[in-house]
Amino acid sequence: MISTREVSEKLRWLRLKAHYSQEQLADYLALTQSTVSRIENGKQVPDAVTYENWMWVCKNPPKQFQFYYDGGNMQHVGF
Q1: What is the pTM of this model?
Q2: Are 11 and 51 in contact (CB under 8 A)?
Q3: Could you list the pLDDT tens digit for every one of the 79 residues in the chain?
């Protein structure tokens, strides 16, 4: 069985590899920065959904979108 410490170290490593600050990752996961910190320090165990989302976001960074305004409709222009 994997320990809490191993989970927290893996999640922190993934975040750093993706070049996210704790604040950025927290925004992507709809968490607070303090929750990310507690998870990375082994003081809180993430639930299964948070764990899966954390891994997915770090391995598949959100793309930056550009939009233009067209008569009330937001239109996707590109990445």
Answers
A1: 0.77
A2: yes
A3: 889 999 999 999 999 999 999 999 999 999 999 999 999 999 999 999 999 999 999 998 776 544 444 555 545 444 4
Ordered by where they begin, the domains of the chain are 4-78 (1.10.260.40)
Question: In the structure encoding, which two tokens stand for residue 54, read together?
Answer: 């954390």
Q: Of 62, 59, 8, 16, whose CA–CA distance to 35 is shortest?
A: 8
| Rounded Cα distance, 65 and 13, in Å | 26
CA distance 36 to 54: 10
- Give me the residues paired with residue 67 across strands: 76
Q: What does the longest C-alpha to C-alpha distance in the chain come to?
A: 56
The structure tokens listed for 59 are 């391995």
Identify the residue whose tokens are 């507690």. 38
- Size of the chain, expressed as the number of residues it contains: 79
